[in-house]
Amino acid sequence: MKVYYECAPCFLRQAKEALDLATEDENLKIEVMEELIEIIYRDFNREAVSNELGTKIHRTIKDRTHNKDPYLPKKRKGNEIAMKFLPRIKEILKEKDGLETYVKAAIIGNIIDFGALGVNFDTEQGIIDNMNKDIALNHTIELEKKLKTAENVLYLADNNGEIVFDKLLIEKLKEYDVEVTVALKEKPILNDACIDDALQIGLEKVAKLVSTGTDSIGILYANISEEFKEIFNNSDIVISKGLGNYEGLTAMKLGNKPVFCLLNVKCNPIAKDIGVNVGDNVVLKLGNTS
User: Fold this and answer.
1) What stretch of H or E contains 284?
2) Contact predicate 178/152, CB 8 Å
3) Which of 145, 186, 203, 207 could form a Cys-Cys staple with 198, CB 3.0–4.6 A?
4) How far apart are CA 141 and CA 99, in angstroms?
5) What is the pLDDT at residue 113?
């Protein structure tokens, strides 16, 4: 996805929050912020890809502060929030156990996002507010149709904490007799989930875990490993979680690859790009899924 004008102040907001998490050295913060402003000044233009620019910013913060995982405390908080709500979500799934309900649960997990929504966002209230909302743009029927003929699914994970709810959906996907592979980050960036995070919740028990080979925000095709490119290209269906993956996938040539994006719309640029409202829950098919 190309940047919108609102992305620039969002980059600066994220940079400030990430720096505060990464270091207490005020002089270093000034130095790094100067570099980040230069990156935005140099690279922010109509043709810039939003998650590519965001990746540059957060890699710079990690490198310059020597903090490889600034969002670690927030990732732990995300896990705590997810586990708190897990029993309530499971009760909902018992009452209505169709695929759409599991998809909705996974989308509700996408609320656990300290990058897009900020470190001070009331995540618990956000989950509560979304539990009774319908899916505004809903291509779940098309997804289920594809699942009935597919042999394998590639699941692009997003945030830590969120993957607790992803696990529920993945268990449901297995009922369609498909092999599920979950892609996670090679190294920490923002509060994105890595393989170690997935192992902590036993995700390896329901799916094969692989690394994208990089620490990009979302998927950046030029950054991912050759091994992961092969996995991506050979997948029958791609299920993508979150904003960063949506931003990256819409900048790629997908051809006839059936890709389904599951996300909560957290900002105006994404809302405008998809054609929905901020706060909407979305299941969106990309590419030719006929």
Assistant:
1) strand 281-286
2) yes
3) 203
4) 9
5) 67
Length of the chain: 290
User: Mean pLDDT per 10-residue run, the chain (290 residues)?
Assistant: 96 96 98 98 96 97 98 89 88 90 91 67 74 90 97 96 95 97 96 94 97 96 95 97 95 92 95 95 79
Q: How far is CA 241 from CA 54, 173, 248, in A?
A: 17, 15, 11
CA 89 to chain centre: 20
Give the per-residue pLDDT at 289. Answer: 45
Cβ atoms within 10 Å, residue 141: 11
Written in H, E and C, the secondary structure of 24-78 is CCHHHHHHHHHHHHHHHHHHCCCCCEHHHHHHHHHHHHHHHHCCCCCCHHHHHHH
Quote the pLDDT of residue 126: 73
Give me 261's structure tokens.
Answer: 């994006």
Domains defined for the chain, CATH in brackets: 7-65 (1.10.8), 72-286 (3.40.50.10880)
pLDDT value for 79: 86
Rg over alpha carbons for the chain, rounded to the nearest Å, is 18
Beta-ladder partners of 63: none
Both structure tokens of 142? 């098309």
β-sheet bridge partners, residue 30: none
- For the residues of 138-187, what is the DSSP string, one character each? E-HHHHHHHHTT-SEEEEE--BTTHHHHHHHHHHHHGGGT-EEEEEEBSS
Place of tokens 């709810």: 165
What is the greatest pairwise CA distance in the chain?
A: 57
CB hemisphere CA count around 124 (13 angstroms) = 8
Pairing of strands 179-184, 259-264: unpaired
Find where tokens 């190309």 sit: 2
pTM for the model stands at 0.94
